[in-house]
Amino acid sequence: MFSPYFLATSSQCPCHPLFPGAFSFGRPILYAPEFVLLGSIETFHCEVLEFPPETNIHYEWYNKKNLMKPFSEYTSLTGEIASANVVINADHEGQIVCKASVHNNTEIAPTYSHKFYVFFTVSEPVEGAHIVTDPPHEKLYEGMALAMLCNTIKGTHIRYSWFVNGLQVPNQNKALTIHKTTLKDSGTYVCIANNKLNSTRTFVSNSSAQIIIIKEPVSLPEISYAVVKEPDGKYSAHITCNTSRGSLPITFKLLNHSDIIDTIVRGHLWTTFVVPITLEKEMGLIQCQADNGNMAAKSPVVALEVVPVGGAVTLTYDYDMTPTFQVIWLRMYCHVERGTFPLYHWFLNGTLLEDEGPVHMVTRPDDSVLLLVVTPITSGYFHCEATNSFDKTSSTPSKKFLITKEVLNRLSTEVMGVVFGCFLFLVVLVTGCCLIGLSHSEFTAFSSI
Q1: Membrane spanning segments where (predicted)?
Q2: pLDDT for res 436
Q3: C-alpha distances in angstroms, 332 versus 113, 309, 358, 380?
């Protein structure tokens, strides 16, 4: 009759420890379900098999958490099994005990169902699973910690499963934590919450898909600038700010000390600011800032000052020689005394040289280098000119140098003479030292006789 329920029984006890001199009838038998739903109406049963004739038995049901107040009562007038219909709430969960006593008779001690009671589980069907992220998913950047919680609107005794891009991950906790995120942690996250009423009835709630995008912080930007002469004759600095990595879009700011000169939002990793300038005037210390919502990154500080090309233009050279003192490579250097953005041109016999064929030109921050092998084609008068890269209306030339094989070999002969002279000097010096040492030895030997 009570097969769906858990049965708690015990052997009879003739007396009760609280009433050692009183008669005691048999322990009551408790019938109670093990698993119930929150809010459901469940029936509890209790009966005493041996009791004095013509007695009314009073039954009370208690939760072990509160043995002072029964949650239901029943009086049996004819010895029938006691029944109590109870609307289940969360406070009913726990260990249940049934108490039986003779109605209005304190001479017979009350008895209790088995001391181990019935463990009674209240289940609420799980509902409303949803994912909550900390920090908010809109502000996730590489290297940050990410905690995701699978919250529910309702439900007790819940188990959890997590899926990333459709694949289950080995985590059955309410929280899924990533201590240091990478770009690979981007994806679609789903949690599934479930609980059981019994071995045959299960409740499941799936969260909606939570798309996680781990953003890439911006790297330290680089700053550079070039000068442009505008059609109206005025000058402006085209300041380029670029970063090598970072999720888009990026907000670029141009700073002069702490003042913001301009702000531009770009869907790529670089931008250009145009700032009017005055030549030969200090325009301040500029800096570029890049920000995509995480932590702003700043470039080094650069002085914005443009000095036109001016002063003397000097041309020097050096060369490499073979073991026989023959010139094989010639390097010429062109340098202007001042100028922020100088542009150099090389000439042979008054003709502008191109960076091809028997010559090769290299531009460096402070000068320009011309490399060549001296042949009849590359012989003649060389000179260089310096001009402003942003204004080529005027230029300053260097002196002209005659470069031929004969001239260079004559120079190498002079060098060879100098080297031979130095060698001869060393030979004479060493010989003189030896002679002086020999004379000193002979003098010492003669003195000792």
Answers
A1: 415-438
A2: 62
A3: 111, 20, 14, 14
Tokens of 396: 């300053």
Residue type, 224: S
- Contact call for residues 332 and 316 (beta carbons, < 8 A): yes
- State how far the Cα of 98 lies from the Cα of 26, in Å rounded to an integer: 13
Residue 348, C-beta contacts closer than 8 angstroms, at least 6 positions apart: 378, 380, 381, 382
Q: Which residue bears the tokens 């009433």? A: 19
Whole-angstrom Cα distance, residue 130 to residue 160? 12
For residue 188, the number of C-alpha atoms closer than 13 Å in the C-beta half-sphere is 6
Q: Say which residue, 295 or 438, is predicted with more confidence.
A: 295
Query: What domains does the chain contain, in order, with CATH numbers?
Result: 6-123 (2.60.40.10), 130-212 (2.60.40.10), 222-303 (2.60.40.10), 310-407 (2.60.40.10)
